[in-house]
Specification:
- The protein has about 130 residues and is of the alpha+beta class.
- It has 2 helices and 6 strands.
- It has a single domain, classed as Beta Barrel (OB fold (Dihydrolipoamide Acetyltransferase, E2P)), CATH 2.40.50.
- The protein is about 20% helix and about 40% strand.
- The N and C termini lie far apart (about 60 Å).
Length: about 130
């Protein structure tokens, strides 16, 4: 009995010792005003369509979703009536997958490819 318990404890310890650390997105607590102030563009709109861009078949974490929005309210920045926003494909990297047909309030940031956002900067408003 004692040997079985010892072997079980050693096995459990090895399992935790070799397990890879989990990656997770963690959103810092910020107020709506802080989100607004740090964003390049803020708008409300309905997701029209989505495309995979810059994907790499050998690296599932690489790539982005490009979602095109019909903008219904422009609150900040140069936002057109139709605006495309990029987001990481991977949730652990704070990626966000928009549901086509649903409405969102989006806080976006200017980057090389255009406006980008993440799961910390999107407020779903429903269908």
């Amino acid at each position: 009995m004692k040997r079985t318990l010892t072997a079980l404890l050693i096995s459990a310890g090895l399992l935790f010792a070799v397990a890879a650390p989990a990656q997770a997105c963690s959103c810092p607590p910020v107020s709506e005003q802080e989100k607004f102030d740090s964003a390049t563009a803020v708008f409300t709109g309905r997701a029209l369509d989505e495309q995979d861009v810059d994907t790499d078949p050998d690296n599932w974490q690489k790539g982005y979703y490009a979602t095109r929005f019909a903008v219904t309210e422009k609150r900040k920045g140069a936002v057109g009536d139709l605006t495309t926003v990029f987001t990481q494909r991977t949730e652990s990297l704070c990626g966000w997958r928009f549901v086509v047909g649903h409405r969102y309030e989006v806080y976006a940031f200017a980057e090389e490819k255009g406006l980008h956002t993440n799961s910390c900067s999107v407020i779903p408003l429903g269908a």
